[in-house]
Amino acid sequence: MTKSSIRKRLVLATSAVALFAPHAGYAQTEDAATVSNAPGEEGGDIVVTGSRIARRDLEVASPVSVVAAQEISDRQPLTAEDLLRDLPSVRPANGPSVNITSTGSSTIDLRGIGVNRTLVLIDGRRVVPYSMDGVVDLNSIPIGLVERVDVVTGGASTVYGADAVAGVINFVLKHRYQGLQASFNNRITDRGDAGQRRVDLVAGTNFADGRGNITVAAGYSKRDSLEATGRAFSAVPISSTNGLFGGSQSTSPVLFTSPGPVALGLGTGSLGSVLDPRTGRLRVATQSDLSNSSVGTFLQTPLETYSLYGSANFDIAPDIELYGSASYVQNRVTTQLAPGGILSDSFRVPLNNAYMPAGLRTQLCSALSVSRDACDAAANATGPGSAGYREVAVTPLRRFFEYGPRINHYKSEQLQVQGGLRGDITSSLHFDVGVQYGRTQQSQLLENYGSYSRLQQALRSYTVSGSPVCSDTANGCVPFNLFGPTGSITDAMLDFIDLDAATRRRNELTVITGSINGDLFGITSPLADKPFAFSIGAEYRKLKGSADPDPAARIPGELMGSGQAQLPFSGVITVKELFGEIIAPLVVDKPFVHSLRVEAGARYSDYNTTGSSWTWKAGGSYEPVEGVKFRGMYQVAVRSPNISELFAPRVQSVGSLAVDPCQGTSPIGNAGLTALCIATGAPSGSIGSIPSPSANQINTTIAGNAALDVERARTVTLGAVFTPRPVQGLALTVDYFRIRLKDAITTPATGDIINGCFSPALNPTYSYNGFCQLVGRNPLHGGLNGSSDTLGAVLAGSNLGVIETAGIDLGVNYRLELSQLGLGGEPGQLRLSTTGTWLDYYHFQATPNAINRDCTGYYSVNCGTPRPKWRWNSRVTYSNETFDLSLLWTHIGKTAIEPYLPTPEQPLSTPQPGGPNPASVLEAFRSIKAADYFDLNATIRLREEFDLIFLVENLFDKQPPMVGNAVGSNANSFPSLYDPYGRSYSVTARITL
After folding, report:
1. CA distance linking residue 686 with residue 666, whole number of Å
2. SS3 category, 79
3. Does the model's pTM come out above 0.90?
4. How is the chain split into domains, by residue range?
5. Strand 895-897, strand 858-859: pairing
6. CB count, 10 Å around CB of 4?
7. Nearest alpha carbon to residue 350 among 461, 483, 468
8. Which residues make beta-bridge pairs with 504?
9. Residue 652, beta-bridge partner list
10. In sequence order, what are the beta bridge partners of 860?
11. pLDDT (tens digit, 9 = 90+) per residue, 865-884?
12. Pairing mode, strands 391-399 and 341-342
């Protein structure tokens, strides 16, 4: 076999490995990444993401994945979240397909241990958070100015401080830019909807003979809305139990859950009783009576963004640079829900209501033990206080389709400025002193929700001379027709109950940082010629946050269908920190040791809220021969609670629950369960007819906890890097990661509380235990939905949680000049890259008394979005002087619904608490097959200064998996993980001068 044929076979073999190796993501994995050069020198010392030490030869032991400029160009993202969502080390969080629980932001969750444990930086510096959770809105990142993105996983708290427990995402911007670049992007789906547009302009120039530079950038982007009814899989809510229509209990005409069907003499039925407009009487409700909650709900939330950025650098001396930057970003996001109305509230309705049918009045009187004579007298009464006047407490459910969808408008403004001085103390010793200030302001406006008190006033009506009138005519009261068919609610009625509410939030971040780094006074190891490197510094941070809602938003239950009251609160967190790190080359270019380095670091933090704490790291790398390196890092990290976790007031929200153990006939014949249902607040008369959770949601009550302490994490990374010299352009990496977070700031999952109380496996004696004390039922019908007097499940934060995860990251990168194959001419270049993650385990335990939930490879109400064991991205690119052609393959491994949890009492028959019993879920919804997506990209260089970029995403129009509305996070599926839009086309024109 000739050398040429051997070389060709080796090339083909390594190309196949690069394309098909199981590695998640499309990022290139490297040891180091340049953030900034030393002043006045393009080839000076560099700062590496993951360290504050500036030195040209620096390599850190922590793995750093790099999403390079070419990848950003190929992906053509609208936002930073679009760019990072598919990274295998990332778990999707808030994004365009999150509507119901959206906060108007985009976020990323490294390793899936919480968005507040991922630190987002721009050029190595903190970004002001958009919320009091301390989380950065990725919509505020000027994506058109991003040169590349560095992702450090496995923890980085020693270098950057708290919040970097899972790692750091560092957006590196274009610096000292010269010239002008403009790009125009347009995207549309195969169905002609869900469009996106983006325009970016970057300009820069040097001045003063190259001593200074000014760079400015501006951007505009817009994302259109797409309703859930625009796709077949999400057009209607689907029952996870039988795969049929699974609508919301709020209907038109009205449905009653209290009194229940049993009290009405209609038999059993957990859906309640619906009013038949033809007869004016109630009958047992069926699924066909329920409403389509997909109507009006967004599958893609609209976004409009304006951004401005400017930076300036000036060398005031040969070794001293003055620098500064300022940015302003404005985002407008709208979320939209199905029409509101009476979704879970209880009202007092007079029996002489002007619109109440006589048959309904008779049924209510009978169910509520009102005598026939008293019922007749009440029907003929006038206002309160008149002879025979009587009101009855009921829980009617009805969507006001005449109102239109509920709309949430979010407007966010972020201003950030920073400046400083950096330079050289000596040729190998550098300093950097900087100050930054950031401010975010967010306003939230809720429309089409309606006023509870106004509706209660309008329901107290009676008939005078054949016309309905309000008993209380204040505020221009208009009687409300709750009992008519769709269309019977007039504009005048809606105008009277109409109530909008706004909340304004503000966050401010001030950071003062100073550091010295470089060679450690020339100290070297006897076996190495490279000196030790070090960094020391100090930092002061102050974060202030406040929320100021309108008076209407502060009243629990006043804004119908809003889920929770908005209460004012504020908080201030200050921290003083000292930090230092050292990297020591111990052996260089010796027999059996090409390189041996160790590194260590520590950070001391003093918070005004949690006191003092330490973070530290230790690790190193060993290269027996050039091209083979082993690396490892052990870190102890802490995270102090954020403003929301500490100071948030007690408010009502909603949580996911498919089945209430007390609903319908479930308690009948089970004395222990019946007693618990009553002990947690159900009226004894409601047993047998307690309604099921409305739209698979129940009330929850959440609050901050000022007594919280820091949470502590221990992270380990062990890996190897192979860059074999015989195969130029090939790099392979493998890294094991393990994160264990104890004293974690967590709240029990909704299912943990409900099942901790009612599950016979977890509470076999049906005792009124600590979990039962966290449950509060509706005093009228015993359900877990209702107004503010229904606590539902009380979710209280504590330091009792444990989160642990582990896995392996793999990476292959290969670059081949095709001329090496002897093909003649200039045939171009072939690039292959694969990044992937294998998840060994993910465990979460909210409290010592809660289940240690295993979500590895599973999905459910409590595990949430699937956590597949395998995820990877592979890209193959051919390029020459004229064009690039690239194919990206994204793989999401198979998953299954959260399985049974064997127990000694019931070893095989008890479902793991928290979601629907897997046996009760339609078999087709109990597992999700592996999904593969392919994106095709072509870049055509028409002229040196003009490029056209074409992108086809989801080339084969793969549809998302369906699991139903009780299991899926949204739209019967998990649209933040699986593409919900189908095939889409994008074209970009880019001009560079």
Report:
1. 12
2. coil
3. no
4. 647-709+748-796
5. parallel
6. 10
7. 461
8. 443, 548
9. 701
10. 864
11. 999 999 999 999 999 989 99
12. antiparallel
